[in-house]
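Consider the following assembly input.
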Amino acid sequence: NAGVTQTPKFQVLKTGQSMTLQCAQDMNHNSMYWYRQDPGMGLRLIYYSASEGTTDKGEVPNGYNVSRLNKREFSLRLESAAPSQTSVYFCASSSPLKRRLNTEAFFGQGTRLTVV
Amino acid sequence: AQKVTQAQTEISVVEKEDVTLDCVYETRDTTYYLFWYKQPPSGELVFLIRRNSFDEQNEISGRYSWNFQKSTSSFNFTITASQVVDSAVYFCALSEGVWAGNNRKLIWGLGTSLAVNP
């Protein structure tokens, strides 16, 4: 089982360039998430998708867009990269059981993005 | 408001010492989940434990143990006989609410960086 797979692992962009971070999970999870992690700031939620066909903004959505392509895949797009978007990005997935409490989230390996 | 506080930013211990990482949370919900995750130097986030608000039993898993006390809104994590491989950043997180098909977001602490020195 691969779990949650993110690509790429590393990326350097110039200011103004665009790119899409890909995420796929093979655990049949309903919910998927994109986080960014910055020193001293912990993990901050960018966007999440509670189920296929829905997406919602998290704490820091500005400058990003997402697509929940199907149940497996959830991509994050930077339309015009800025140095402030230099960060480590994590994709995660989880699945609430019907009428049960939340389960833990499983994370991808992370993408280290540098915008120069 | 929901909040998770990990007051210890960095801890340094010598191998074989016991160490406790503190986690204090705030929530208005009566139903919630608490989590601990480990982030080793390689960067991945590894799930360690989940505890729901109805279960205050302490949990032990090998050298790891967790103490959940609703009276003090704390969910502390103890590593017994620490090892160099325990060196990592440890995050505590809170998830509120329960409803079918609506996974609640995780609220994260800022993490405690643990260094275990030989």
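Residues 3 and 27 of chain A are 6 Å apart (CA to CA). Ask yourself how this observation constrains the way the partners meet.
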